[in-house]
Structure formats: C-alpha cells, structure tokens
Specification:
Helix content: 40-55%
Radius of gyration: 64 Å
Distance between the termini: 37 Å
Number of strands: 14
Length: 731
C-alpha cells in the first residue's frame, strides 16, 4: 500500500481469503450460474433458427492470352488485384444496385422475411401512433428489402488472398444457399458487361479521333515536304542527311586528301634537292630509281663500264678506244644528273598543283560552310515540323492499335469477368444461430465469473481480503513519519478484554517457568523471560531495557486495568527522557492513557484512523508532560473501527519507521487478542502488573508462551515515583 514506506509493499491480497469467501457463498454462485444458464437455454430455444450459406469468388485476370489484337504485349500488371482493388470488389458486392437486381430476380419482396413491417407488432403500432418511432411503411418496399438484405449479408476478403467470401443468413436453408450464388452470378455478369461497355465506348470514341488524326498527319507531312523544298534541304541516300551536308563532307574529305598529296610531293622534291646539293648518289632515291629514263641510262652506264673493264686487260689507258668509252661513260652520268633535275622539277610542279588544288577546295569549302550555316538555321524549323508530324503519326498508330484491339473484344464472349466462382453455396444442414448448448454454457460460465468477481470485489473493497506485509529485520527505518493512507475497515472486533479480579499485592518475586514445564505433551515453546535486572521489575529498569536493546515495537498488557495503564504511560515518558522517540498507541477500553497524556479526550485517534475518517498525521499528538507522542483512543464509532483491525499491523509498521519505539497499551487482554494486534511473534510483550497475584501472572505468561510469544518482560511498577511525587525521572 502506498504511503507507508517507499521501499516495500505494505499490504498484499489474500488469495486464500478470496477463495474462501467464494466458497462460503458457493450456494449463491451456483444459484446464479444455474439461473442464468437456464434463462439462456430457454431464450435460445425460443429463437427462430437461422441458416447460413457461403459462396466464394476468386479475383483474377480472365483475359485470354491470344484474344484481341495486342498479342505481343500481354497485360502483366496486377494493380487492379492488390489490396485496395480487392476491397473495391467487396464494396461492389455490397452495392445497392447489385442487391436490388438480386432481389428483383429472386422476387424477395414477396417474402415476409425480407419485409417484416408487413406484419407489425402491437408495440410497434403504438410507438408509431405516439410519434416515437417512424412508420416503416413510409419507405418504398424496395428500400425495406434492401435494408433487411444488408442486415443478413456479410461480404469480406479472406485474409492474405484474392478470395472474397459472401455469407448470407436466412430462416430458409434453400434461400441461404441460393442468394450467394445469385449474387455471384450477377456480379460476374456486371463485370463482363462493364468490360464490353468499356470496349464499345472506346471504339465509338476512337473512330472520329482516328479520322481527325489522319488529316493532321497528312497536313504535317505536307508542311515538312514544302519546307524542305523551299529551303533546299534535299535529302540524300543517307539517313537524315541533306545535299548541302553531304557536299560539305565530300569537299572536306577531298581537301584532306589534296593536302596530303601536296605534303608528299614537297617532301619528295626536298629529298631529291638535298641529294643533288650534297652530291650524294641519286640512284638511291625512289623517285629517281623509278624513272624509266634513269633505268635505261643506268643500264648503258653499266655496259660501258663492262667494256672498259674488258679492254683494260689488253689495252693501256691511253688507248683511243678506252678514251672513247670513258668519254661516253661521262656523258651518260651527265645525262643521269640532268634527268634527276627533271624529276625534281616534276615533283615541284606536282606540289604546286596540289597547292593550287588546295586553294580551290578551301574556297569551295568556305562557300559551302556559309550555305551549311544557312541550311542549319532552316533545319531548326524543319525539325520542329518533323517532330509535330512524328507525334501525330505515333498517336495515330496508337489509336489504330487500340481501335483494332477494342473492336476485336466487342464480341459476346470476348470480355470475361476478372473473377470466377471457386466455391458455390450449398444448402446448409446445421443451424448457424442460435447455438443452444454453447449459449447456455457461455451464459452459465459468465454468470459464474461475474458472481465470483462481485464477491472478490466486495472482499477487496471491505478490506477483508487484504493482509499486511511483515517488516524485514534488516530494514532501514526513516526518521520522518510517512502519511498512512487508510483503507476500508473490516467488521471484526479489535481486543476482547479479559476480566481481571482484584487480588492482593504480591512481592517482587521473579516469575519462573516451572508451570510451563508441567504442561502435557506436546510441550509448548518455553517463553524467554527477560529480567532487566535481578529481582528488579520496576518501570525504570524496563525503560533502561527497552533503550539498551533498541526495542522497536512493544505491547503492554495490563491485567490490573487502569493501574497498569498508568505504569505504561510512565514507561513511555521515561523512555522519552532517555532521548528516544517513542509513541504510545491507546488500545484500552477506558482510554486511561489518553486522559493522562492529552489535554482533552475528544482528539482524533486510533479508532478514527481505523475507520478511515482522518489522515495519519492528524492522529499523532504530543504528550503534555514529556517529549513522547500518543495516538489516543479517538472518538469514532468503535464498531466501524473494529472492522479495520487488519490495518493495525500496517499502522504499527509505519510508526516503527518513524519512531525509535512504538508502545501499544492494550489494557487487560489475553494472548488471543494480542495475536490479532501483531503477527510478529518476536514482538516484546510487557506485562504491567503492579498489584496482580503471582498465579495470575504465571497463567498470563503461560498463555503468551503457548501463543508463540517468546520475549516477555514483567513490570510491577516498583521503583518508579507515583504521580505527584518527585524523583529523578518525574514525568
């Protein structure tokens, strides 16, 4: 529970208590289960049985592969069969036009099932007369049938598929099967008819458009031809080329060739000229060697050299014949040089001719460039006209192809619907509603659950199903008190006082555990009796014991009544003087501690807190004579307060987090009553018995030992000054 401690859960739900509460009221639960189950069985049995038929359609392309003119480009797009496309087909099946056509074909308006207003009930007539309900007969019969038809129809897409299911519910099993089949038939007919209408409309629209486009194409092509002839943009054999362009290309090619020839001729002439100037042998030059004249002269030179060589063997150098031959040889060589110079002149002439040819070609090229620039400007307009003509031609070809395709699909069976029936509805043999046995079981089970929930909620709201959670031994306690949030009280008594008879005072004698050992088997746990000092049961010694042992929670039992409660008040004040923060909770019936420690007796206290009337902090008050605090008895209704007794342990735990010691004064109470105050068996029990007989004390200690309390301290009041006297610890 929030508000007690931030570190742990303060209360827990007692599941066992919840189940016990249900078991105690099992008769009511069983009665409610049987009653509601019986009512559900009777109601379901009286209902008119309804049957449900189902047909299924598969949405897919039904276009034949070779139907139509566009055989080379089959349709592969599935955009009309995606999720949104299937949902659109579902809406078509639920459309009013389709339903009305099915109703007309099957004459559903003649069946009372589809027009229940023809036999209205008396209650309906009264409501119509009073103006509370609109007269259903004001609607046309077709609208009434449509409204009732839509209530019985269910169309949906099968998950992750292209299948559409149509379910129809009717009191007649034959009708439940016939209507989905009729809807499928009408749907396929509408789909096929829509495609035929689309093809027919396309054909009718394309005919005038094609005729108009033909005229536009003819005019565009005529404009292209006229513009080409007027601009002298005659076409050549090459694709897209004009005469001017081709001529320019030819001259450019010829110019490049002439320039190459001129360069070649100049290089050859320079080579011959260099050979002549340097005196090198010219017979190594290609142009010289290739000359026929040079070749003949070389042959003659070779013959003369041969004759000179032959005659030199028999004749002297001065012989006239040798001189004649040598003179001929010199003449031939002179002719070779002369002929070489002629070849050089020929090469120079060839280079000059090539240069002249180059100049002429350059002049022609410049002229053609000017003409080509003008032709380029003219081609801009020509290309614009050609683009227009091409666009019109392509559009015409597209329209012609579509027209042929639409015309080929205008036949009766040429446009099948893009759907087919994969499951026809059959006449149902089982009733779809009402399912008597499941309805009865569900109603009974629901009544059982509701009854159990109501019982558990009542237990939770009353607090009887809540139990406090015990405090851990190693828990770190906060110094500041935390506000405690009250819960609903539980109607049970808090402490039953034990009548205490007056007994003569006894001396301070230690109470021994011998009577406990005489108990029969099984032997109860022997209580641990704490004596602060040997033979000293005074209030001061008990206070020193509580401070020394750092006792967090102590419960004071006063078999002598108010006399013992006075000692408990004195004990709280002495502990406060020791410097410990202590709070006393007044659980006595006489409110003696409240009268001793507070100014007035009408303060909010523990009963108000248990009843949930005040917040936690308003019940803690300061002692008028010390630093101790007290939670007085309070002025709430005791009966109402006792209902919240289960919350007392939570209150004690919360106080233990804020105070060093929590002292609970219970007055004359037995071990059973104390067990209801605390569930912690290690809680310190203080028996405040200033004038109680030893036998009664021994009996009381024995009772606490049998209840499981192991730490018991006896306080007789000896050694503490009486109220009004002076002492070292005067309150």
């Amino acid at each position: 529970m929030p508000g007690v401690n931030d570190g742990h859960q303060d209360v827990d739900i007692d599941l066992g208590g919840l189940f016990r509460a249900i078991w105690r009221r099992r008769g009511r639960v069983l009665l409610a289960t049987v009653a509601f189950g019986g009512l559900a069985f009777i109601g379901a049995s009286l209902m008119s049985p309804e049957y449900q038929g189902e047909a299924r359609l598969l949405i897919e392309s039904r276009q034949a592969e070779f139907s139509g003119a566009n055989q080379a480009q089959p349709q592969t797009g599935d955009s009309q069969f995606d999720e949104s496309g299937i949902s659109s087909q579902v809406q078509v099946l639920r459309s009013a036009d389709l339903i009305k056509q099915v109703a007309r074909d099957m004459k559903l308006y003649e069946l009372p099932e589809f027009d229940p207003t023809t036999n209205p009930s008396a209650i309906s007539d009264v409501l119509v007369m009073l103006g509370i309900k609109k007269n259903p007969l004001d609607l046309p019969p077709e609208e009434r049938v449509l409204k009732e038809f839509q209530k019985k129809l269910q169309v949906y897409q099968v998950e992750k598929s292209r299948v559409i299911a149509m379910q129809f519910t009717s009191e007649d099993p034959k009708l439940a099967a016939a209507i989905p089949n009729a809807m499928a038939k009408v749907f396929l007919s509408l789909q096929s008819g829509a495609k035929l209408d689309s093809n027919s409309e396309a054909s009718r629209w394309l005919e005038p458009e094609i005729a108009n486009l033909r005229e536009k194409v003819r005019d565009a092509e005529a404009k292209v031809a006229d513009y080409r002839s007027s601009s002298d943009l005659l076409l050549t054999g090459e694709t897209g080329g004009t005469f001017a362009t081709k001529q320019l290309n030819d001259i450019s090619t010829e110019l490049a060739r002439v320039r190459g020839e001129r360069a070649n001729a100049e290089a050859r002439a320079e080579n011959v000229r260099t050979a002549l100037a340097s005196g090198r042998a010219v017979d190594t030059l290609n142009d010289v060697v290739a000359s026929p004249m040079i070749q003949r002269l070389k042959e003659t030179e070779s013959n003369i050299q041969g004759q000179i060589a032959d005659l030199s063997t028999t004749l002297l150098d001065g012989h006239p014949r040798l001189k004649g031959l040598k003179s001929q040889l010199q003449g031939i060589r002179t002719q070779i040089i002369s002929e070489t110079r002629k070849i050089l002149g020929s090469l120079e002439n060839e280079a000059n001719v090539s240069q002249l040819r180059e100049r002429q070609l350059m002049a022609q090229l410049n002229t053609l460039k000017a003409n080509s620039a003008k032709a380029g400007e003219d081609e801009v307009g020509l290309r614009a006209l050609e683009r227009e003509a091409t666009a019109q031609r392509q559009l015409l070809e597209t329209y012609l192809a579509r027209y042929r395709e639409a015309t080929s699909r205008s036949g009766e069976n040429a446009a099948p619907a893009d759907a087919r029936v994969i499951s026809q509805a059959v006449e149902p043999t089982e009733v779809s509603f009402p399912k008597v046995l499941p309805i009865t079981i569900v109603a009974g089970f629901a009544a059982f659950l509701v009854s159990c929930v109501i019982i558990m909620l009542s237990e939770l709201f009353s607090g009887r199903a809540l139990r406090p959670v015990g405090r851990r031994e190693d828990e770190v306690f906060d110094e500041e008190p935390v506000e405690f949030q009250p819960v609903q009280p539980v109607a049970e008594p808090l402490i039953r006082p034990v009548p205490v008879e007056a007994a003569p005072a006894v001396a301070r004698a230690p109470v021994m555990a011998a009577p406990i050992e005489s108990k029969p088997e099984p032997e109860p746990a022997e209580p641990e009796f704490d004596a602060p000092e040997e033979d000293d049961f005074s209030i001061a010694s008990v206070a020193d014991h509580l401070s020394a042992d750092d006792v967090r929670v102590a419960i004071s039992v006063s078999p002598a009544g108010d006399e013992g409660s006075v000692n408990a008040v004195a004990l709280a004040r002495l502990v406060s003087e020791e410097g410990r923060k202590i709070v006393l909770i007044d659980l006595t019936g006489s409110a003696c501690p409240t009268r001793l420690m507070t100014e007035t007796a009408d303060l909010a206290g523990i009963t108000n807190l248990l009843a949930g009337e005040v917040p936690f902090t308003e019940t803690i008050h300061a002692d008028r004579l010390s630093d101790a605090h007290i939670i007085p008895q309070g002025d709430a209704d005791p009966v109402l307060a006792m209902r919240g007794i289960e919350r007392l342990q939570m209150i004690i735990d919360a106080l233990a987090n804020a105070y060093d010691t929590v002292l609970i004064e219970c007055g004359p109470a037995d071990a059973g009553a104390i067990s209801r105050v605390t569930r912690a068996r290690d809680t310190k029990i203080i028996i405040s018995a200033p004038s109680v007989a030893n036998e009664e004390i021994i009996e009381l200690i024995t009772g606490f030992g049998e209840a499981g309390f192991g730490e018991i301290v006896l306080m007789t009041g000896t050694g503490y000054p009486q109220p009004g006297n002076s002492g070292r610890r005067a309150a």
